Amino acid sequence: MCYTEKDKSKANGGTHMQQEQIHTTASQWQELLEKHRAGEKKWNRLSLIFGLTKLALLITVFLTVYFIWLRGNPTLGITLTAIQAVIFVAAGIVQAKLNARMRFESGMAELVQKHLDRLEGRWGDFKDTGEELAGSEHEYARDLDIVGKRSLFQLLNSTGTSFGRARFAEDLLCPRYSGKEIRERQRAVAELAGKPEFCCRMELLLGRVGVEESLPQAAERLADGKRRLQSGAVRALFWVLRVLTCGSGLLMLLLPESMAVVPGVMFSVLFLAQLAIWGLSSPQIRPFLAAMAAASHRLSVCGEPVDTFAQEPFESEKLRELAAVLGGAREPLRRLAGLSRRIGLGNSSILAFILNGLFLWDLWNAASLDSWKQKWGEKSTDWFSALGETESLLSLANLPRCCAGSCVPEPAEGTGVFTARALGHPLLPNDSRVCNDFTLGRGIHIVSGSNMAGKTTFLRTVGINMVLACAGGFACAESLTFSPMRVMTSMRLSDDLSGRISTFYAELQRIKTILDAAAQDKSVLFLIDEIFRGTNSVDRLVGAEAVLRRLEELGVSGMITTHDLEICRLADERPRVVNCCFCETYRDGEIFFDYKRREGPSQTTNGQFLLRKVGILAN
Prior knowledge:
By secondary structure, the protein is α/β, with parallel strands linked by helices. It has helices at residues 5-12, 26-69, 74-119, 152-156, 162-173, 179-193, 196-207, 214-222, 232-254, 261-294, 296-311, 317-327, 330-344, 349-359, 361-396, 398-402, 455-470, 503-520, 537-554, 565-568, 607-613; strands at residues 410-411, 418-423, 436-439, 444-449, 479-482, 486-490, 524-528, 557-562, 577-587, 590-599. It has 21 helices and ten strands. Strand 9 and strand 10 (590-599) form a beta hairpin. The radius of gyration is 33 Å and the shape is elongated.
């Protein structure tokens, strides 16, 4: 991969990380894809051979029975059949392992293809868009395409559990890391970015766990500190009841009929007594056991990704810490998975009746879970939290592999720092992305320009890269120095008929929220698109001047876009307000955009040209 040992040491050591590119090319992904597809074919071919072997063994069993057993030599027939049965079972075991290996290679091939789709811009159909993770009231999620269709979440998300999905969403929607924490996460992301095959393996194993809510519900109950069987004396009494019930049952079966009456009566009384105890205790313990039974499969498959991550040698401190935490979960999770499977046997009504009548099965399992919780319950929260953070870092590591020209942003002290070289939008295709240099400084930038020239996209470019940088991820830039800022936007606004709110009033509310936040926090980065678009030009100019004056007084940094060139003149009156623009050119009756940022206000308009283009205005 385009990630050398020199790059690796830079990403993992020292206080200043060089912003080197870590990018996996299409040919490298294609090579991995062919490797795993070849592996899938190989294991499928071997599995087929063992399947045919089993079929041949079945045929020989029938021939053995017919020609040897039925022709007067049963001893030889039994011997041969036993040998054939052993070979058949062994072949079945080997075939099962081959099928598992084939499924692994097939799964890896699918994930490598998914990474190739990311790289080549075919990720728009990925199923998980994170649409429900943030509402329209979020400070920037919808405006910057953090979640939803064709969003950053849809592009990068490779989480396989509900813990990872929630943590990755939190890192994108509410990153609140210090400069030190950001550097630690950057080193972890950089190291994972250089391990594409390992990351695919982790994604495959975690995907088997699934994002259903049964596992979080079980985890919550494991960490709640409650014990279902408080008294040791009560637990001892239940053990005595189980021993007496099973003992009397055995005596009833083994003793002659004349002597089995007393054990039989005793067994019946104890069996019914245990059923009564089970019925009385069910409301207290059954919800807990049901939650564990529902999560039994997910708990059983949690062990392999935990083992895989814990055993991987890492260099970054963050990954070593996570591996150490997950390493401590290996044995407890194995035991918990076994307990969950045992609890699952009680899901059958008939089995539950028999098992609870004989062994007080549910109470036995509840006592076992109490013992597990007493030993490991408090630590389980740390395990699942570490698992979620691991998955979030794995997802962030996807950006440098699919985004050509990504870098490790450099955190800086102070506020309002954002200096980028070749800054681009990570959701745009690599082959058509246009990048710009930009320095925010302590200023307020008015971005003017014609329709479709790239003003709003540039605001989103700055905003989405700030979100990535604050989350400890890579940025889509050749270099980026930044101070962590709270991003707040006002872009995609619309009428709310149910709330009787117009677009203009919705924008007023949004901008008021930004002003209130800026009054409390100087690290706000505001991004306002088409300021006061919903009112007339006179009110728009008055309102824009008032907002800019207030934001300037508060000392925050940000950007607004406008079509109104009168607003651009405010830069002549306000010392911290500066102009920049995006322009178009015309050739042979056609309009062209280069999407390059220029200093100063816009000198061009294209509204009348477009009106003529669509036939509304006469030539």
